[in-house]
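Problem 12. The chain below contains 388 residues. Write out its predicted structure in token notation.
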Amino acid sequence: MAQNIDKIYEDALESGLLPGFAVMANDKNGNIIYSKAMGVASQKPGRDLPFTTSTVCALASMSKLMTSVAVLQCVEDGKLSLDSDVRPQLPSMGKHGIITGFDDAKNAAILEEDKTPITLLAPDLAKWRASRGEQPWTGPTVEDKSVLPLVFRPGTSFAYGAGHDWAGKLVELATGDTLDAFARERIWKPLGIDKDMSFFPKSREHMTDRIADISTLNEKGEPPAVDAAAFDVLIGGTDCLSGGGLFGSTEAYHAFLSAVLRRDSRLLRTESYEELFRPQLDEHLEEEFNQYIAKSPVHTAFIGMSIPLSVRKTWSFAGMVAKDDIPGQFAPGTTIWGGVPSCEWFIDHESGLCGTMVCQIIPPMHPPVMALHAKCQSELFVMVQERK
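Solution.
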């Protein structure tokens, strides 16, 4: 089965779909069942950097799982509450109210005041940004990027947004430290991965020379991949962008993922792991979530991880939860999420399997690349089943 996974990615390298990749997987006992990296981590002229499991990559939204663990650590410390209104700590969040429409004649948003408690880009938002001379998700800080009108009253619908970035700001307010420093002491050092994870890799001497460069396919999403010289995964960000700003090696992130699969007590208590993985959406919100994923092929790929629409999905603090199985690929209840450069992680709780697939390619969450990860996941699933 390992040879089959090798072939999946070797073919992608040969076709030019991927410049390089790293994949790691292990069982619930922490035993590595697959580990491989091949190709190059940069296509910049004169930069000869092989892609290895220690290559430092932009992990983007894969940071959300780590942020959720940090939030739950603060809850355990009594510094945050999952049920308290966070508006007093984050007064700029939602300060514009709810955007209910846009008056094109006046070039102005139609806003409705809202004070619904908030607990732990739509078209009108794009127009609202443009009316202010702004571009979506630009600027150095979380506030610059994410102080937006709400698109609905909290708790009534679902939209992919900046919730984890705000959650990271809460951790910083609660602890008086940056999320980078907090994660270093409470997550990375206990797991021995502190030299391989950071929100600021260019300021870490031991990481700088290992940072991969993003590559891109053409406007049709076709190979061969070339260097994406103009692409900035942080879009000017200088904050700890806890929803999508983490950098790290595949080996380090997978060590973290494996610890979460095993429910390692160095990170969280048993009851906190239960909360981390518990679906948080009621029946109405779950339906809203599934409709959101089905809105367009872009939503299906970017939010739905290219998993078939027939698989019912919900949401947990950890990430998306596939309520149904895909026979031969994953069991019901599998938790899955990814990151912009077509990266993915998964935890198959029933099978006792987790995997991390990392590459540095755009367009984001490109379906042909996600299909490679799905094939890899199927091979890993068979491998772990044969070990039982």
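Discussion. The first strand starts at residue 20 and ends at 27. Students who got a different answer should revisit the alignment rule from Section 12.3.
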